[in-house]
Amino acid sequence: MSSQIELTSEILKRAAELADRLHLHNYRYYALDDPLVSDAEYDRLMRELQKLESGHPSLQNPNSPTQRVGADPLEAFGEFIHDPPMRSLENAVGEEEVREFEERASRYLAQTYDREIKNFEYIVEPKLDGSAVELVFKDGNFESGGTRGNGSQGEDITKNLQTIKDIPHRLKRSKDGLPPPRYLTVRGEVFLDLDGFGKLNHVREEAGEAPFANPRNAAAGTLRQLNPKITASRPLKICIYALGRVDGFEFKSQSHFLETLPEWGIPVSPDWHKCRSLEEAFERYANFIDGRDTSPFEMDGMVIKMDSFELQRDLGYTSRAPRWSIAYKFPPKQEHTVVEGIIVQVGRTGVLTPVAVLRPVRVGGVEVARATLHNQDEVNKKDVRIGDTVVIQRAGDVIPDVVAVVQDLRQPGARKYKIPRKCPVCATPSVRDEEEAAVRCPNPACGAVVRESLRHFASRGALDIEGLGEKIVNLLVDEGFVGEPADLFKLQERRDELIKIKGFKEKKVDNLLAALDEARRRPLPRFIFGLGIRHVGEHLAEVLAARFGSIEALARIDRETLIEIHEVGPRVAESIINYFGDERSRRVVDNLIDAGVAPEAPASPAEAGEGPFAGKMFVLTGTLAGRTRGAAKAAIEDLGGRVGGTVSKKTDIVVAGESPGSKLTKAEKLDIPVWDEDTFDRALLNKLIP
C-alpha cells in the first residue's frame, strides 16, 4: 500500500494558501526590502509547503515558492542576467538538520557516482545580513553588477556599486606577479556595519527623515537608489563569498578562492575557517554565537560549504539550492522589557490586532518599541498584561514578537487584557469568526478599513499605483477626496483642488494622476487581488483570472463551480461568493468599471499558439530533482510548448534529468539539443529558449 496521504481539498487549499503567503513574503523581502515576517516564520511556512509537496508530488510546479528564489526585479533598473543562477541556501535550525544535510550529500554521491566519502572538509563563514549581489570583472576591470532578484535575473545596479569603496575598479596582480583572470564573476553581500548604520540613522533623524529599521533594509534600499550620489554618501561595505564563473584561472576549492581574492584586491567574508569535520564546524558555530553581540556587523547564521570544488560540481544543485552548502541559522535574539500599554490596530479586512507598546529596548542593535500580540487567543495563551515584564525577540529583524511573560515580576493588580468589544476607530461592535481566532470590525465603511483597503488596492502586487503610499492615502481620505477605490480615478476632475493641498505641488499631483491613468488597464489577476477578497492571494487571483476571463464572469459564478477548482476549498468559495453577493462590494466593482478601469484578461499562450516555447516539441527523460514529470509538462505547455513521449526528427529539445534512458542516446544520434535541469530552470524562469 502506498504511504502517500490522500490529497484532500483541505490539503490543496492549505498548499495554495502557503504558496500565496510565501510569494508575498518573497516579494516584500527581495523586491521591496520590507519584510512582513521573521526569518523563522518564513522558514516555518516554507518547511510546511515542502512537506506537503513531498507527500503529494502532484502539488509540485515550477512556480512554487519551493522552486524559486527571491522576487522578480522591479522596472526602475535594467536587467542583469546571472549565469549560472544565484540560488539561495537551504536553512538548518539545529545540529540534527545539519547532520541530515551531510547524510543527503553522502547518499547522493554513493547513488550517482558510486563514491563513498566518510569525512568531508568544510569552509564555514558568517552569514552576513545584507543584500546579495554579483560583480563582473573583465580583463581585470570592474564591468557590471546586479542584485540577486529571482536568481536568474536581477537589477543592473552597476553605477551604485561603483560608489562602494571596497569594490576595486581594477584588480591587482597576485603576490607572485600573475595577472587576474580574463573573466571573473563573484557573488557577495553588501552590508552596513553597526557603526555605519548608527551614523546613517543619525544623519536621517537630523534631517527629519525616518530612520531605517535595521542594517539590512538600509543596505538594500541604498543599493536601489536611482541617484548614485545617495548611494555614495552611505558607508556600504561588501564581502565576497562565492564564485560565479572564471576564465583564465582555476580554483581548486573554496579555501583557495577565499585566499586568492584578497591578492587581487577583492574583500572576502571575514572570519572564515576550514573545518575537517562537522564537529569542528559546530565548535565554530558556538564561537560565532558567543561573539554575536560584540560583532561589528549583523549576522544571522553560519554558512557551511564543502571545500572541494570537485565535490561541489559532483553534488550540483536542486532547482532552488546547492546540495553542497547549508545555512545554519542562529536562534532569535531575545531581551527583557516592560509592556507599557496595549493598543489595537485595524487591518483592511477589519481584523483587530493587539499590539504591545513596550518600554524601548535595544535588541541586536535595533531599538524596539512595539511587538505584535497577534490575536486574543495568543494574548490569553501567554497571559500578557499591561505592566508585565516580557521576553521579546527579533527573529529576522522584522516585527518583534512577545515570547513569554516573566510571571515572577508581575505587578499586583495587573488585569487580564481583552480586545475591545467595539472597533477603536468607528465604534462598531466587533465580531469573532467562528472558525478563526480573529476578531473583526464588520463595518466596511470604517476609516481604518477604507485606508488599508486603498493601500492594498494601490500596492505593487495589485494595481501598483506609483506615488500612492500610506501618507498620500491618509491625506486623500482625511481631506474627503477618496472614500472607495473608484474615487481615485475621478481625481483628474479635482486636479485644481488637489494642487491647493499643503505639500501637494503641481508636479506631484500630475505624476499621481498619470500613474492612476496607467493603472486603469492592469492585468485582471492584479485587479482581482486588489479587491481584497478574503483568502484570495496573488496566486489564486491568477487562477481565477485564467479560469473565468473577466470580473463579470467571476461575479456570476456559483459555489459548485468554484469548488471544482483545485486551489479553492469550501471556505474560500464561500468568501468569494459572499464578496460578490454583498451589495457594497458589488458597488465597489461596478463603480470601478464605470470610472474607466478595464482590467486586461490573461491570454493563454498554449491556447493562442503563442509563447516562448510555441512550436517546440519537448521530450522528458530521467528524473528531475526539482519537479515531477507532470509539473514539468505543465510548465512547458504553459509557455506554449508541447511534450511528446518519444524522440524523433520532430523533437526540438530533450530535457534530461538524473539517470536518463535511451531517449538521451537517440537524441544525441539525431543531433537534437539536450538541456540539463539547470538549463531547463533558466528557460522557465526567463521564459525564453537559451
If you had to describe this structure to a student in words, what would you say it looks like?
The chain has 690 residues and is an alpha+beta fold. The chain has five domains: 9-68, Orthogonal Bundle (Helix Hairpins); 92-329, D-amino Acid Aminotransferase, Chain A, domain 1 (2-Layer Sandwich), CATH 3.30.470.30; 333-432, Beta Barrel (OB fold (Dihydrolipoamide Acetyltransferase, E2P)); 447-594, Orthogonal Bundle (DNA polymerase, domain 1), CATH 1.10.150.20; 606-686, BRCT domain (Rossmann fold). Strands 2-11-10-3-9 form a five-stranded mixed β-sheet, with helices on both faces. Helix 1 (9-31) packs antiparallel against helix 2 (39-55) and helix 12 packs across helix 13. The chain is globular, with a radius of gyration of 27 Å. The mean pLDDT is 86.
